[in-house]
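ASSEMBLY PREDICTION REQUEST
Request ID: AP-0331
Submitted by: J.K., bench scientist
Number of chains: four
Total residues: 340
Priority: normal
Notes: Please return the full assembly, not individual chains.
Input sequences:
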Amino acid sequence: MKLTTKGRYAVMAMVDLATCVDDKPVALSDIADRQEISQSYLEQLFAKLRRCGLLDSVRGPGGGYMLSRPAAEIRISDIILAADEPLKATRCHTGSPQGCIGNRGRCLTHDLWEELSQQVHLYLSSVTLDDVVNKRIIGTAGRFNAQPAAPSIETPQAATLVGGSVAERV
Amino acid sequence: MKLTTKGRYAVMAMVDLATCVDDKPVALSDIADRQEISQSYLEQLFAKLRRCGLLDSVRGPGGGYMLSRPAAEIRISDIILAADEPLKATRCHTGSPQGCIGNRGRCLTHDLWEELSQQVHLYLSSVTLDDVVNKRIIGTAGRFNAQPAAPSIETPQAATLVGGSVAERV
DNA sequence: AATTTCTTGACTTTTTTACTGGGTTTCTCT
DNA sequence: AGAGAAACCCAGTAAAAAAGTCAAGAAATT
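STATUS: Completed
Returned structure:
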């Protein structure tokens, strides 16, 4: 999963849309204004989101965009995957043709990235648009302080799991 | 925390170094060869890692680099933070001066990114170099299935990957 | 018919990454 | 002492990706 500002913009815009509870479509220009994103840029993003079935659009005067389903049924990961689209196969690094099963410790790191990717995805799919709108993001920030990994390694999963809002986190 | 290929390279090189268990320093050129990374590029990375105290260096013939402490005491997050350095304050988006406490739902997303960043950091600081070398990366992939945040949504399949090229300051 | 709005594609700018090359310093070995 | 092997340092650059812009067009409502 790729995390860029593009994905963030997409989420911001979707959150904006989700706060407009009316059944009326919302004009792109309104969202662009509120979120301070260039309208043309948003157009590109919304085109993708629409193609992925996250948005419905209405043309003509009074038209605009609206969520295709309730905010509680849209995961943040859905949005980011749609916006950052290029679901390229996981290649280990820049793009060496021979893949990553080389000699030495070359892709010992493979599993690590794979797992990290899972972690991120799991987290983002545990949060819905509705969670964000209703500030239901719970913070682990203070609970665990970045634990020294040092001498005795405590179970890695300790770090990863905390009950989440709707689903579990990670 | 930023996740880029630069950080990945740094981790790969550190893993490589960690597999050379000897007390002898390892020449940069060897690592560059094995990991197929340009030597000069690695120099830059290693300079940062050294400045952050993760590496010790020995000059002159027979010199090279060595881990400054046991692999079990070096967290992956240490490496990535060192390599991707610019620990700029988490600004919500591109850089609007007014920060992110705007009107409307603007930075409802703030907490989300903040929390995601924590998640990633927590995970990466739960894994040590030694864990990677000894393939002690545990997979959550199957264990928890990403709980549908909503009634019926297909399971989020394979999170594609960590940063294509440019990734995110999560 | 006219206006509002989405839709599309190509295009430009900016930023970042990845890499190169030159030169200097520090060390070891002969 | 001198030669050479390595780390160091700096500045620049080519390419790629991301971020943003522009302009023409199509649908629907008024």
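REVIEWER COMMENTS: Strands of chain B lie at 55-58, 64-67.
SIGN-OFF: pending second reviewer
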